[in-house]
Design brief:
Rossmann fold, 8 helices, binds S-adenosylmethionine
Amino acid sequence: MASTDFYLRGLDYLEQFQRPLDPWLKEIKRVGIARKVPIIDDDMGRFLKMLCALKRPATILEIGCGISYATHWMLLGNPNARITGLDYNQDRLDMCADFLKMSGFSDNITLCRTWAKDYFQTQRSTFDLIFQDSTKKEYAGMLENCYQSLKPEGLLIVDNIFYNGKVLGLAEDQEKKYKKAVQALELFSQQVSEHKGFDCHFFAISDGVLVAQRKS
Ligand SMILES: C[S@@+](CC[C@H](N)C(=O)[O-])C[C@H]1O[C@@H](n2cnc3c(N)ncnc32)[C@H](O)[C@@H]1O
């Protein structure tokens, strides 16, 4: 797709002006790529960092913290934030804990091995910012939980609104595998955009990003 090509060439061009990644951020990225563990893109990382630097969230919930690449970008924006990271995958949580030790941010984080839906059933904490980066099919089912878990004026940030481009059209051989997830993601975008309690802004950066602010 020409516009995707333009976006990627733009990212390449901008690379020469970007501040180099901190060595430990580089290492987390290297491991993520080498082990094929999903991590956010660097443009998403920069966006998250900037939002955290501007909003200064004291408390953050990350749904799907994986090996902590996004966690670290958010901490770079606000090193005083306290983050609760959820993930059901123990291996990833172990790596996450190791990387947090390496960067010196362990004290900022509480890691919970749990399915997000179980967490919401048992916890009533509220946060200044929620970063949703878990299974895309489950976004819609968690929308109300996210709303209830945000403080007034808190931000819900959601990655992969484009689902790696798949919401823009599926090839014939992708239909069977991805159709349901695409429909679920479209339902999520529709529902959140119509939610009376959120002021929503969708951005065509990275893999598609939603920033929704809880109104009151
Ligand atoms: C895209 S990866 C997260 C990447 C991470 N935010 C980063 O940038 O480093 C998604 C993670 O969410 C976890 N996950 C997916 N669905 C989940 C759920 N329903 N509850 C808890 N964890 C979930 C997966 O184990 C995976 O590690």
